[in-house]
Amino acid sequence: MPPIKKLLLAATAISIALAGQAMAHAHLKSAVPAADGTVKSAPSELDLTFSESLNVKFSGVKITGPDKATAKTGEAMLMNSGTTLMVPVADKLAPGKYTVEWHVLSTDGHKTNGSYSFTIAP
Length: 122
Hints:
- The protein has one helix at residues 3-23, and strands at residues 28-32, 38-39, 45-50, 60-64, 70-71, 77-79, 84-88, 96-105, 111-120.
- It is 17% helix and 39% strand.
- It is elongated.
- The chain has one domain: Immunoglobulin-like (Sandwich).
- The strands form 2 sheets. The protein has a 5-stranded mixed sheet, with no helix packed on it. Strands 1-3-7-6 form a 4-stranded antiparallel sheet, with no helix packed on it.
- By secondary structure, the chain is an alpha+beta fold.
C-alpha cells in the first residue's frame, strides 16, 4: 500500500475514534429556565436535559446570583429515564441575572460540565 494511502487510512481511523469519544459524553440539550432566557417569576426548580443518562450522585449545579451569592438548592433528582437533572431551588430568587454552573457524570463514566445564564425580570 502506498504511504499516502496508509496515512489517509490512519487519519480516518483516528477521526472516527475521536468522534466516537466526543459523542459518548453527556451534553446539555435544553434547560428550564432556558439559557439566555428571561422568566417573569423565580423558578422553583431547574430542569437540565442531557443527551445521555446521568449518575445523580456525581452530578449537580451551582446557582450564582447578581450579588455573586450562591443560591441554596435541594437534592437533585433524575427524571425522563435519567436524562433530566431536576434541582429544586430552595431560595426565593430576586430579579436579576443568574449563572448556572453544572457538572454531570454520565452512566458510561464520562464527566462533562458547563454553564449558562438566565434572567428573572423585575
